[in-house]
Design a protein that fits this description.
Blueprint (H helix, E strand, L loop, with lengths): L5 H8 L5 H24 L7 H16 L5 H18 L8
Helix pairs in contact: 2-3
């Protein structure tokens, strides 16, 4: 089997999505996230609110719209980003 460059594989397997549908999907995900976050704030939840739920739903919509051959790398990049954010937070005095 001949060696095929990764860029050729990426170009062949990339799915073409209409920009209008993409923006509608992203807008709907933000709207649903805002509604859920608003409900959680009105319920008095101290865990998450409007910003958190809208960003999480937007991230999920972006991940769902990625082509299948790029999606695993997006998961790895997301996990590394979460790890770097958690690593930069100050630790509580109990665990020292």
């Amino acid at each position: 089997m001949a060696h095929v460059p990764f860029s050729v594989i990426l170009a062949e397997e990339t799915l073409v999505m209409d920009e209008t549908k993409l923006f509608i999907d992203l807008g709907l995900s933000i709207a649903v996230g805002l509604l859920v976050g608003l409900q959680r704030e009105r319920a008095g939840s101290a865990i998450a609110g409007i910003r958190t739920f809208s960003l999480i739903s937007l991230g999920g919509a972006v991940a769902a719209s990625l082509p299948p051959n790029v999606a695993p790398w997006a998961v790895v990049a997301g996990l590394l980003a979460v790890r770097s954010v958690l690593g930069s937070l100050p630790r509580s005095g109990r665990n020292r």
